[in-house]
Amino acid sequence: MGKCLVVANQTLGGDQLMGEVRRRMATGPSSFYVVVPNTPPADVIRLLGEPVGEPAPFATAESEAQHRATLTAQSRLHQALAQLRAEGADAQGSLGDAEPLTAIADVLAQQPFDEIIISTLPAGISRWLGMDLPHRAERKFNLPVTTVISSS
Fold this sequence. Notes:
Elements: E1 2-7, H1 15-26, E2 30-37, H2 44-49, H3 58-86, E3 90-96, H4 100-110, E4 115-120, H5 127-130, H6 133-141, E5 145-149
Parallel strand pairs: 1-2, 1-4, 2-3, 4-5
Helix pairs in contact: 4-6
C-alpha cells in the first residue's frame, strides 16, 4: 500500500490534485494524509484598509485575519477529505505549521510515508515554488516529491 503525504492549501480539491490521487489509486491500494500549512494571511494591511466602523488596533486585525485564515484552511481540509473519501480513498489530515517544511516534518515525525505530493499555485504567484519547496522537501526528507501545479 502506498502512503502519500499531500501538502496543499489553496489548491486542495483542484482537478490536477484529484487527477494525481486517482493515478495513485489506479496503481494499487493507496492512503493519503493531507496536511494544510496554516499559512497566515498575506495581506493584513488590506484588512486595515477595509471600511469597518472604528479602526481596530493592528494586533486585533492581525488576530482576526489569522482566525479567518485558519477557518478557511480547516474548511478546505474538511472538503478535500470528503472529496477524497468520495473517490474511495483512505484519507486523513490535519492543519499544520504555517511553514510548509515544518508542517511536513511534523507529520513525518508521527508516521512514515512513501512519497510527498505538493500541490501548489502556478509559477509567478506560488510562494511555495518561489521558495523552491518541492526540491527542498525532497532533499530534506529523502522522499520522492511530486509537484502538482494548479491551472487556476
